[in-house]
Write a structure and sequence with these properties.
CATH architecture: 3-Layer(aba) Sandwich
CATH topology: Rossmann fold
Strand order of the largest sheet: 1-7-8-6-5-2-3-4
Oligomer: single chain
CATH superfamily: LmbE-like
GO molecular function: hydrolase activity, acting on carbon-nitrogen (but not peptide) bonds, in linear amides
CATH class: Alpha Beta
Structural class: alpha/beta
Keywords: Zinc
Protein name: N-acetylglucosaminyl deacetylase, LmbE family
InterPro entries: GlcNAc_PI_deacetylase-related, LmbE-like_dom_sf
Helix content: 25-40%
Radius of gyration: 17 Å
GO biological process, one term: glycoside metabolic process
Number of helices: 7
Order of helices and strands: EEHEHEHEHEEHHHE
Distance between the termini: 24 Å
Number of domains: 1
Length: 237
């Protein structure tokens, strides 16, 4: 496999768009911590509140708990602006309503860099991805174009935004770029550990933040100079 290139850092603001609480924390949060430490402004938009993500917990109880945990998780990597939409966890649909919601956030936040999760059919290693991730990632890419067209979603009453320079997907099997997270690795672990209730409901490797994230960072680092790294697919605009 080819070596990974460094993610460009000639930007000052970013918007992270993912489907659920914990999505960015499984791999991408180390990069977020690096960038906020550089003084970059980063906000999060979550399409759902993760209400159906814990089998042992009623959704009405689960949703506010996962929102609270996501806010704490973001704080661990220097992010204070966190917004939640109300698309249904587990059955998020790709379509115009989702694109409109993401477009509205892009026009409000006006980021130069947009970060989403893996929306390919599989994960690195071959495991199948889930429909929510695919829908939100695809809608995010399309919303970047929508946000820059004044004639799409004019009902939002927001000025168009065509200033996005880069779009990247974390944890993609088609990764092209990476970020050195050696100095921010501990923050990434703390960010995932903030999802306490979610982790307690898991079993297996994903329930152990430090070793799971370290194995991912070491694997990415093998293609990026041997440092601890997190990978992204940088998408053409």
């Amino acid at each position: 496999m080819a070596d990974l290139e460094a993610v460009p850092e000639d930007w000052s603001s970013a918007l992270v768009v993912v489907a659920h609480p914990d999505d960015m924390e499984y791999g991408g949060a180390g990069a977020i911590a690096r960038w906020t430490a550089q003084g970059k402004k980063i906000a999060y938009l979550l399409a759902s509140r993760g209400e159906n993500g814990i089998d042992s917990m009623d959704p009405d109880v689960c949703a506010p708990l996962r929102v609270e945990e996501q806010i704490a998780s973001c704080a661990a990597v220097g992010v204070t602006e966190v917004e939640f939409l109300d698309h249904p966890d587990g059955t998020i649909e790709y379509g115009v309503p989702l694109r409109r919601d993401i477009t509205a956030a892009l026009r409000r936040h006006r980021p130069e860099f947009v970060i989403t999760g893996n929306f390919r059919e599989t994960w690195p290693g071959g495991g199948l991805n889930m429909a929510d991730h695919v829908a939100v990632g695809r809608a995010t890419v399309d919303a970047v174009r929508d946000a820059g067209n004044r004639w799409i979603f004019p009902e939002l009453g927001l000025e168009k935004w065509d200033g996005v320079k880069y779009v990247a997907a974390a944890s993609s099997p088609l990764a092209t770029h990476a970020v050195d997270i050696t100095a921010s690795f501990d923050a990434s672990v703390a960010s995932l550990r903030a999802h306490k209730a979610y982790l307690e409901a898991l079993s297996g490797d994903m329930a152990e933040p430090e070793p799971f994230l370290r194995s991912m960072a070491e694997a990415a680092g093998k293609r990026f100079g041997g440092v601890l790294a997190t990978s992204f697919e940088l998408l053409p605009l």
